[in-house]
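Q: Protein A?
A:
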Amino acid sequence: MRAMFDTIADRYDLLNRLISLGLDRTWRRRAVAALDLAPPSVVVDLACGTGDLCRELTKAGHRALGVDFSPRMLAAARAGAVPLVQADATLLPVATGSVDGLVCGFALRNFVELAAVLVEVARVVRPGGRISLLEVDEPRSKLVAAGHRIWFRGVVPGLGALLSDGAAYRYLPRSVAYLPAPAEMAALVEGVGFAELRRLRLHGGIAQVIAATRVGGRPLGGRTHPGRPGRNPT
């Protein structure tokens, strides 16, 4: 997975704009707004990639920290003065309960151990803090679903092969199958220590934002270590 993201880093932003027809910028703004945190709040951008959500957080007046396991993605990032750290999502170099919020854009389906990642998310977010998870979705309308299927499964791999890496963009449509269903995802998020969960469906259900509030107490199965600055992925 790391090798794949390293390979597509240089044209990642270009393909994101083309694949989403430019809607990804709007979705990221909605994700930051769904945090519902007063600035300046300290917010981790998990799997930050090239820094799109970091930039939106900064525009909203927040203090962002970008974390990603791909060194090429971090090298290609355009995040201004935002600090960027290479780290594994299951072992974040962040002290327990030390951040006000966390965002994650289009990465949940790529985590091999999603449950472990969510436990770590719950560890670093303070009680009362917020998360906003932006992901793809499956449209309910048959007409929208048919068009989305043609675009996502037919056109997107072709664009990827033409402009970047064909194998990576053939994986992209298949990766949707790795995303838990809404009820299962809600159970996972609530099970590690979040409440007041809201699921926002965007543009006919082709994208979604899952927002929730951290409640008190230790996350289910959570660790108590205070974070390990500088730890590289394992």
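Q: Protein B?
A:
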Amino acid sequence: MRLLILTQYFPPEMGAPQSRLYELARRLKEMGHQITVLTSLPNYPTGRILEGYRGRVRMKENMEGIRIVRTVLYPSKSKSLLPRLLSYLSFAASSLLIGVWGLGKQDVVLIESPPLFLMPAGLIMTKMKRAKPLMMVADIWPDIIIRMGRLSSSSLSAKAMLCLERFCYEQASAIALTTPGMYNQIRSRFPHLPNVTIISNGVDTRLFRPDLREQKLRQEFRAGPSDFLVGYCGLHGLCQGLEVVLQAAGKLRHRTDIRFIMVGDGPAKESLVQMAEDMNLQNLRFLDHRPKPHIPPILASLDVSLMPLAFRLPGAMPSKVYEALASGAVPIVAKGSDAALLINQNNAGLTYEPGDAEELARAITKLADNRALCRTIRENCLRLAKRFDREVLAQRAAETLTAVAEGKPLPPVSW
């Protein structure tokens, strides 16, 4: 099978889409499929083109046998809608105008959304390459933008995006969502669509594992052997609602045995750092973005891994949940998400109401004060992680993609 993956986000950038698509592409390549990735010059989440890629309009790379073609875009990490829209549209245009040429015939074009605006470009590419389009939807636009309060549901922009969403879905050979909640949402809104499935995110259990726990690393984070280390590792973005972590740390400032770390970068980090300084939080440290190989020991060295969301978001499943499960770092997850449903069903973590710092602080305290409970939940986490090993998930994805390429019925949905 010849597969073209069209995505604005790909390594060396860090993030859930980047990791998910790279890991899938690598394993499909190992299975013997021909994989090409058409993506942007790396710039996420800093909004600056990375060193070594600057000044380029189009460039080719080879990443473990995967052909990578990168095209220019307008980079931005602005919280404002217009600069972000320009970033999305600029890559959609450059990928179509200068990226797709010379890539050869393809059997399937996997179009990653968001951004939704990449879908029309992907559909044109499928015509050019005589391929079948598969829409890979990690966040449902414009629904999530409306829920974030960034767009009014009655606005002309929202109505236009809804029309675009419907058109693109109806043109696709198949639509793949990453969670059951998203699958159910699309099924209920578009019951006439013939091929809707789940291609879940997951974790490399050989990379993320509990035996990487390091006391030396914990000491670097100012956590002693008996201290309880709580961490957030990931994008400091707009929909994570990370202010609640700082507020919970403030409520627990009297607990000298509970320490907090926040690892990563993003558009909200500057304001969060200022907020922590204003609150004089001595029990919380911000750490710079770390390369991916540095993350597994950090997660394994945590007692709790936080999965905040700014609001209830049905269908949401942060990829950090899978990594925390495999690392044995007990997840505390925002309610109203698929992540919360998963850990509640398997007693593999605790939950709190988004934005409720008091409830988050109580959940942390419950685990810090009952280490036996924490150990029990940790064992449940490690068992659950095996269901989402990337090797297992890649095989399921290969079966789905092959069925799309051959025009056959999709295999049964599994999550």
